[in-house]
# Entry
Amino acid sequence: MTEVQIPIESIAKVDLLLGQATMLTADRWDDLAAMIHEAMGISLLMAATHPSSRPVDVPGLTRLTALECVQNASREVHTWDLALAADLPDLGRLRVLLADVRRELDSTVGRRG
Amino acid sequence: MWEVVRRELARLEWDVGPPLTLDLMADWTQTVSSLVTIRRALGPISTADPLALLATATTGAARTADVKPILAPSLDAVRAALADVGQDMASRPDFDRQRDAATLNHVAYELVHWVRVRTPDDRAKAWLLAGEAALDGAIHAPTSRSAAGVGLAAWQDALAAVQPVQNAPIVRRSVALGHLAILRDTHALVDTAAKAGALPGPYADELLGNIRELARAHQTTLSQIDSRGLGATRVDQAVMLQVGTAVRRITGRPDLTEPSHVRLDALLRSGLGQAVLVANLTGEQSAQPAAARISRLSLEYVTNPRMLRDVDLSDAPTPPAQVEPKAAAPLGPRASAGIPPMEPTITPGTVMDGPSILALCLARDLGVAAGSADPANPPDSLRGVDPSRWPQLVAEGRQAVTDLVGSVIPMVYAQTRRTPNAADTRGQMFVELMGAAYRFDPQRTSPEGWASYAWMTLKHARLRGVDDAGVVRKRSAVPRPPTATLDGRDPVSHTPDPGEVIEQRQAVAAITEAVGQLPTSLREPLMASMQGHPLREIAEDLGYSESTAHRRIKEAREHIRDDLASHVDDRPWVPFDNGTNPVLERAQRLFECTFTPSLGLGSVRGFDR
# Structure
């Protein structure tokens, strides 16, 4: 049986992106912020469980908006093998949350113009 | 038993020339260890127990960096007196656990306060205040264990763990991120409470303002951390894992069975996730004032918890007036405090009269009906009841079942006493008992027949061999087990000792929680099975084949068994004893660095190392 490789550096990137999204939405107190926090909690635990031994960087992280952070995190998560669900029990929840947050942020940005 | 402790506490306060210690913190950690030992002798200790929180807070205080040893009166004599109390308890099994637990909390409260006022370092002081506040709350406004409280206890534990590596950017980042989630949760709950009139407006406004200010400070902290290379930061992996687990726990979806005001109560009691400690750990100056004000507001709440009115802040409405299942039931004080239906609201083993049992059965049936009814075509029992009230009825129904189980739960212990793998067997028996509580029909016999019905259910279950993870064994393959006796006692009149009561409450809570945590695909068939539906019907209703339904029920039972087995100890926190030695070593090291033998400290009274 082939063992599925844990995408350690990719997890670290998602952790950075969702941490940044949390920081950018720190002044929001709605349900959307709660979802971002939950996604951040998942990625933080994943990163703590599978720490990267090499420096990980997301170029231009500080210039990203919250929506871009979530979009990039979502893209990153979608590259992960679904068979990782056995190693990353919150993978499904993370995917769902990111999809919801992205949709919600997208519509908010659209409404705001 | 506590006389010597009382005398030593008085001496501590009034002795003009007391024996001295050179490191109060080391002395105190040993004393807390003695306190925890006594608490353990009184019964299982959960992570959210005030003594466990005191132990965590003490670990945090002792790990505070660069704190100089404190010269103070020694706690040796108090510790010796506490050791005597522990020995007395071991030799006298008939002691009053509840009274002794209350006394222990008072002693611990007085001692931690005494130590705190003698501790000059503000950061260590903040830790001790966290322990003091937990005891203060437990003494002056006791509350039951809540899921939010357990999560916040894990958070406090994680904060204590990060003390030695608090300067690492990845740690500061994780702490700030986790605390932002706590602040958001509190903000939402306080906002809702204020709008519902459940919290005084000025208090809520001040709290909300400070929460927002602290969140901005965390934002500043996070913006100043260079994220490049965070992943490669060399920090103790175990510490980060502990922080990650705590953050995941507090950011996870809230337990829907836990009323919002219970969550808010836990948050307020925790000083909103130990805001001052977080501010100290992140090191952001602008966080300090808001955190201090939040801490003050939190203490204000601890001294007057009645300011939070006992109303459910969620949209879950109150049950309809005509249904008062608990009116006749012998309720404990917690029932009126809006405790979630996780634990029985009656003392396990309570003998209930017919009307009480009937009321619980009515509530149960209404809950079952509300859980599966179609609002467009409600059954007769729910006609005229607003569908928005149905979730509350479901919760009431579950609570009624839990109470029914609680009333006869000593039977499980009677049936499993002196049996191998008793814990596993009990888990299965709880499931059987819950099934019986759903199936029992008071019209067929009489409401008072509940105890006999439960007893027979357990007896039959035992003969069927349910102790093997729900797999029924062939009667012919195994010799018939001897009939269990209750030593001549009537099953329901068996009065469990307080230790059993604690164990039983936890057992019911654990089984309810375990069922609640099952995925829907397993929970639905199991619940249907517990409610007495035949396998064929379950399979049809849920759209499975009979073999699939059977497999899922079996799998659900196995999940519950494993879950219960994993909760046997229920102590994710690191045993306090383990954290003591490094502290003592540090104290010894600091002592050797700070005081040279030429100072002649050997003559200082009470210095005994």
Summary: The longest helix of chain A spans residues 91-112.
